Amino acid sequence: MAELKSTDVVLDVTEYDRDDGDVIVKCPHCQRILGLQSGPFKGGQFQHRVCGGWLGVSHDARRVKFFESE
After folding, report:
1. 17, 66 contact by CB (below 8 A)
2. C-alpha closest to that of 42 among 27, 63, 28, 21
3. What is the pTM of this model?
4. What residues contact residue 2 under an 8 Å CB cut-off, 6+ apart?
5. How far is the CA of 56 from the CAs of 12, 28, 66, 68, 70, in angstroms?
6. What domain range is 10 assigned to?
7. How far apart are CA 53 and CA 22, in angstroms?
8. pLDDT tens for residues 8-58?
9. Closest by CA position to 13, among listed 40, 46, 38
10. Is 1 within a domain?
11. Per the domain annotation, does 10 fall within a domain?
12. What single string gives the DSSP state of each residue in 42-70?
């Protein structure tokens, strides 16, 4: 039986932001910012191409500011 890696576990994301209209989230595995595909994202599962971690965006996710405007 194959052993699970920590990145194989789907971790929930409860916060997101927008950057020029694109949805961005923080990967719960590596804490890097990643952009999500366009379209509905709440309730979706995504894999971060950099660290390979899986994340699920909560249906109740709320928008927060990741960066302060300059």
Report:
1. yes
2. 63
3. 0.83
4. none
5. 5, 10, 18, 25, 30
6. 6-63
7. 20
8. 899 999 999 998 889 999 999 999 999 997 789 999 999 999 999 999 999
9. 46
10. no
11. yes
12. TT-EEE-TTT--EEEEEEEEEE--SS---
